[in-house]
Amino acid sequence: MSKVFVENEINPLRRVLVHRPDVGISRISPKRAEELLFDDIVHLPRMQEEHDVFTNVLRQFVGDDNVIEVEQLLYEALEADPESKEEMIKLVIEHEELPKAYGDIMRGLSATALTNLLVTGYHAPDDHFFFDPIPNFIFTRDIAVTVNDHVIITKAAKEARYRENFITRFIIFAHPIFAELQAEGRVINLNKIDQFPPSKKGESVSIEGGDMMILNKDYLLIGCSERTTPYGIRALAECLFAKGVIDNVVQVNIPNDRSYMHIDTIFTQINTHDYVAFKPIIADGLGSNVQVFTASGEERKYHSLQEFLIKEIDANTRIIFAGKGESPYQDREQWTDGCNLVALKPGVALTYDRNPVTEEAFEEAGYRVVYAGDLLKAFSDGIIRPDEVQQTIITLPSTELSRARGGSHCMTCPIERA
After folding, report:
1. Are the C-beta atoms of residues 5 and 146 closer than 8 Å to each other?
2. Residue 266 pLDDT > 60, yes or no?
3. Sign of the CA dihedral with 90 first, then 92, 95, and 99 last
4. CB neighbourhood size of 21 (10 A)
5. CA distance 181 to 187
6. Does the model's pTM come out above 0.70?
7. How many CB atoms lie within 10 A of CB 377?
8. Contact 293, 249 (CB under 8 A)
9. What domains are there in the chain, each with its CATH number?
């Protein structure tokens, strides 16, 4: 049986959760875009084509069965656990403030129809929209994070993403793939009010997966950002320390700004010693600082994330800067996810194809930059195998995907690495 285990950001990927852009995204209008957390409206067919290239690359490296669609997990969980299904329907009816009659309709739907409704908001038999779509569900990184042998169900900061939390909680509590985790108490649910109550100062718990990275089995990095609160970080750290999951929680304070909504918009790891980052914040410490909380109660502080990495993680740390660390290129290419990469294995990572100066930086650092379509053809023609690919940055088509403000790191939720 496959395990659920992730102890860093770069070990060979084994299983990953994704979500293909669905018809709900086609309902975003210019007037509703900001409310639904999109910066632009997108062309769904092209976006789906681009996402298919992305998942085709993933499948080449980890296998068809290990690139798992969360919508399929939702369907299977609805089939497997009628009791949890009822709780899920009640949560959605209450949150969306729907008439009770809608709940009766939902109870009468097949698992396939109910899955589609919960994800898109669309009830096909009546050609009626019950509620808003959840277009950000393509960013599966945000819904849950595996830290060593535990899974943390995150808590969204924005109401537009609350239904994603409901769905994730339901899947992890009802799907057989997570049954062992449940039985052994290895699930931490940030949405449990009794476990993580508001602080006496009125602070709330809010942590999204894009702000969480496990650097190694002893260090969990969490960005304190537009979407993740200081109290949420402290509350989670205390829980992780009490359970013995991790020894150090590293809080990286970054500007509360849409441009840097999560730490992975300005920083990701791609190799044993190599990271990609936005220089002004990660290296220069502009509007940023680092606090290290430890299980022993000791605390340490650093001026920048780069300083912390060199002193506590790896003296040989090398940071490749988006746009070569020069404006206006670094600002443009940070905005188009030049820092947001996911590693398939050490030294092989996925990024978008629209950051040319950052691509030059990769080449100068010794990486080969290859377009995803060309690599897939090389696999098909038998020219090279996935296991032979080394020291390579794979660029993905991104005309529409990049409009959603999230890169390959955002679109992957690893649940197993070697």
Report:
1. yes
2. yes
3. negative
4. 24
5. 6
6. yes
7. 11
8. yes
9. 13-417 (3.75.10.10)
